[in-house]
């Protein structure tokens, strides 16, 4: 398929919710304890070579999906300066559960993630026109 140079190519976007298996680093920017953050060694050292915010020493499930879909890695929504959502955003929080009572005041609860997603949608719609 040929695209006209002035015509934007369509691509998929990932909007990610859930827990540590999906968190790209939101807890590093939330009001929580260091027990729920991953901005120090050994988190990220195998793949990234630096603390990545992911609660693993490598990539998360959404990172593999992004790679397969030829998308960039999706950043955490709370990361300072993250204001481009055309490829998506991560609202996941390590330690979050399906119930709002899970680790209250230590993680981003699912209801709050949904509120942040709504804000993201409003920003995206404003930018897209």
Helical fraction: 10-25%
Q: Count of helical segments?
A: 2
Largest sheet: 2 strands, parallel
Assembly classification:
single chain
| SSE series | EHEH
What would your notes on this structure say?
- The protein has a two-stranded parallel ribbon.
- The protein is mainly alpha-helical.
- The mean pLDDT is 81.
- It is built from two helices and two strands, in the order βαβα.
- Strand 1, helix 1 (61-68) and strand 2 form a beta-alpha-beta unit.
- It starts with 13 loop residues before the first strand and ends with a helix.
Features:
129 residues; mainly alpha; two-stranded parallel ribbon; 2 strands; 5% strand; globular
SSE topology:
Blueprint: E1 14-16, H1 61-68, E2 88-90, H2 110-128
Parallel strand pairs: 1-2
In short, what is this structure?
This protein is mainly alpha-helical. It has two helices and two strands. The chain has helices at residues 61-68, 110-128, and strands at residues 14-16, 88-90.
